[in-house]
Specification:
This protein is of the alpha/beta class and 422 residues long. It has twelve helices and 16 strands.
């Protein structure tokens, strides 16, 4: 399947929102490391981005989950100003999806999980959408009719069945959605049906399913990666090689939130029992940065002159969090748990703080700084070499005067010090 390219340019102050474009080829280079444009002192930083032919007013995307679970909340996201919305994952037969309550558990930074401590971790055992597919499709269509110039992305997941995948793709595309994100990464629920992470952790299976999907899809496709794997670049590579226009990373990390030391039962506790779930929020941010960095380096090295996109996910609550992902090469930044904790208005704070970061460094557009930190990652062996070289240079300077003729009267004390070894 031909890829849809990222159109990299510095935009005017007026943001346009075209209707979704079909998949197509585009030959712009994505190798932008080191590229920088200085903005005029009074110019407002431009947050708009164009990803796989889709124009967004800013790079902030509602991540698939509760914040995109129905028409009402997705409408709210558009009204608040989010760059795009990814709906909660749908499948053909919602009757097989049965959620439980409680389904969340939190980790706080206070001593022994004090209720007054800051929330830094969030576990969920929630499944994909339990609403009938027909209802979700109707709401997708309604949203696209009311917001034709905004980007709505369907998240889909199916069993290991080619016909089922093809039917699901056809039905969601008929609603007018702009792109599809494939959930190859849900860490809990229905692995026996070869769904979610069961596919994302098996590159042979992933290659086959991606082939089915990209032979059918006519809109851009993003593959959502699981972090619960040794080398996340392997499934990312397979996804791109088999026709996906982009990858999203990371989904939640398999976890057990904790054990209640009074009841001796695990959390979240459902009728006295629990099951491992997906971990998110601030505590996963450093892990997500490492995974995104690995994928971005792979994409740059192996797909550098082709136009693929990277959507970063993991613990984003501030504009600085987002800037870190973009500095590593992300085109967009998804937020899910952050919205559940802080509300849909969070996007205004994110935009404001990202603009402050851009002003500080005189960046006029997101493309000006996307990926420029990638070159500062290397191997530990190279770090040793660089430090040894720097030490040799410092020692050479420390040796001081090379000849008696170099002594001066004004700098005599400092010149003496420069040749003292302790």
């Amino acid at each position: 399947m031909a890829s849809v390219g990222l159109i990299g340019r510095i935009n005017t102050s007026v943001v346009e929102f075209p209707v979704a474009q079909p998949r197509r080829s585009c030959g712009f280079s994505r190798n932008r490391v080191g590229f920088r444009v200085f903005a005029q002192a009074d110019a407002e930083p431009d947050l708009s981005v164009t990803v796989n032919g889709l124009k967004m007013p800013n790079p902030f995307v509602i991540g698939s989950g509760p914040p995109g679970t129905n028409y009402t909340v997705m409408k709210r996201a558009f009204d608040e100003g989010w760059g795009a919305v990814i709906a909660k994952t749908v499948s053909l037969d919602a009757a097989k999806v049965v959620n439980v309550t409680p389904r969340y558990a939190r980790l706080r930074a206070g001593a022994n999980g004090s209720a007054r401590g800051q929330i830094i971790g969030w576990e969920n055992i929630e499944l994909i959408s339990d609403r009938p597919l027909e209802t979700m499709l109707k709401e997708f269509k309604q949203l696209k009719e009311e917001y034709p110039d905004r980007i709505l992305i369907a998240s889909i997941m199916e069993e290991y069945n080619k016909a089922a995948w093809e039917e699901l793709i056809d039905r969601v595309e008929q609603t007018g959605i702009d792109a599809i994100e494939i959930n190859f990464s849900c860490p809990h629920g229905m692995p026996e049906r070869k769904m979610g992470a069961a596919v994302g952790q098996d590159c042979a299976l992933l290659e086959e399913v991606c082939g089915w999907i990209n032979a059918k899809a006519t809109v851009p496709v993003w593959a959502k990666m699981t972090p619960n794997i040794t080398d996340i670049t392997q499934p990312a590579r397979v996804s791109l090689q088999t026709g996906c226009e982009g990858v999203s990373a990371i989904n939640t990390i398999m976890s057990v939130m904790g054990i209640n030391l009074d009841t001796l039962r695990p959390e979240p506790c459902v009728e006295g029992y629990s099951t491992p779930g997906g971990y998110s929020s601030k505590a996963v941010h450093p892990i997500a940065l490492a995974k995104v960095m690995s994928i971005a380096r792979m994409m740059k090295n192996e797909f550098g002159d082709e136009d693929y996109s990277l959507s970063a996910i993991g613990g984003v609550e501030t504009g600085g969090d987002a800037a870190e992902f973009i500095l590593l090469g992300a085109n967009t930044v998804q937020v899910c748990t952050g919205v559940m904790m802080h509300g849909y208005g969070l996007v205004k704070q994110l935009c404001s703080e990202l603009k402050d970061f851009m002003r500080k460094h005189n960046f006029s557009s997101v493309e000006d700084f996307r990926g420029i930190s990638l070159d500062y990652f290397t191997t530990h062996m190279d770090l040793v070499r660089r430090q040894q070289e720097a030490i040799r240079e410092r020692k050479a300077i420390k040796k001081g005067l090379q000849s008696d003729k170099d002594w001066t009267g004004d700098g005599f004390v400092k010149e003496t010090e420069s040749m003292v070894s302790n």
